[in-house]
Design the sequence.
């Protein structure tokens, strides 16, 4: 049996090396994720497969959480991917609050360190607006739902943690439900849509969303 395994490996070592390098790359350098929910609409929609830069904030030894080097710090407005221990799943959300920030929400309007965030309405989409956050303008939407979590008193983001929200504000389970995100849970920064498959149209590609930048 051992001899057969050795022969099999010898004949297929190139393919085995390719597989190892592929998974090592996805573990530490870059990855792509399929987004199954609409919590980040209209920025990210169901069926988008997004490209994630896993070296945006740190480089880890493949297949471990051992940090080799820090490469940057998460910034307000970033779209981050993180493995939430509280939610027991991987989530994609927009980073709103940095450590030390004071954040509040009144009727879906954010206040950052005592200053109200600016919103520009969209006449073509009455439930959408452009949110101006730290020099980054992005769309958010406020589709009416019952018992929307559209208010919370001012909170201070603790050290080593971040506050995140979905762009689909009334239909997102985020820091309003799971609390602050620990820095070690962050896996990377979402940069663009690689390809988008429409689950309501036989999973045909949405060509207009291919290679669409997210930031």
Sequence:
């Amino acid at each position: 049996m051992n001899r057969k395994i050795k022969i099999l490996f010898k004949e297929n070592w190139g393919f085995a090396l390719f597989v190892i390098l592929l998974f090592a790359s996805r573990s530490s350098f870059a990855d792509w994720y399929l987004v199954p929910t609409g919590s980040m609409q209209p920025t990210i929609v169901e069926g988008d497969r997004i490209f994630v830069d896993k070296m945006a904030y740190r480089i880890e030894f493949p297949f471990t959480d051992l940090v080799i080097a820090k490469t940057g710090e998460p910034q307000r407005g970033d779209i981050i991917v993180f493995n939430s221990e509280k939610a027991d799943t991987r989530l994609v959300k927009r980073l709103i609050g940095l450590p030390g920030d004071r954040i509040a929400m009144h009727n879906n309007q954010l206040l950052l360190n005592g200053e109200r965030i600016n919103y520009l309405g969209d006449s073509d989409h009455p439930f959408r607006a452009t949110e101006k956050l730290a020099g980054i303008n992005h769309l958010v939407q406020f589709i009416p739902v019952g018992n929307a979590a559209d208010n919370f008193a001012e909170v201070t983001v603790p050290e080593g943690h971040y506050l995140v929200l979905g762009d689909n504000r009334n239909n997102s389970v985020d820091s309003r439900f799971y609390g602050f995100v620990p820095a070690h849970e962050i896996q990377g920064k979402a940069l663009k849509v690689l390809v988008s498959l429409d689950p309501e149209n036989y999973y045909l590609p949405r060509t207009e969303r291919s290679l669409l930048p997210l930031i």
User: Anything to note?
Assistant: The longest strand covers residues 186-198. Confidence is low (pLDDT under 50) at residues 15-28. The radius of gyration is 20 Å.
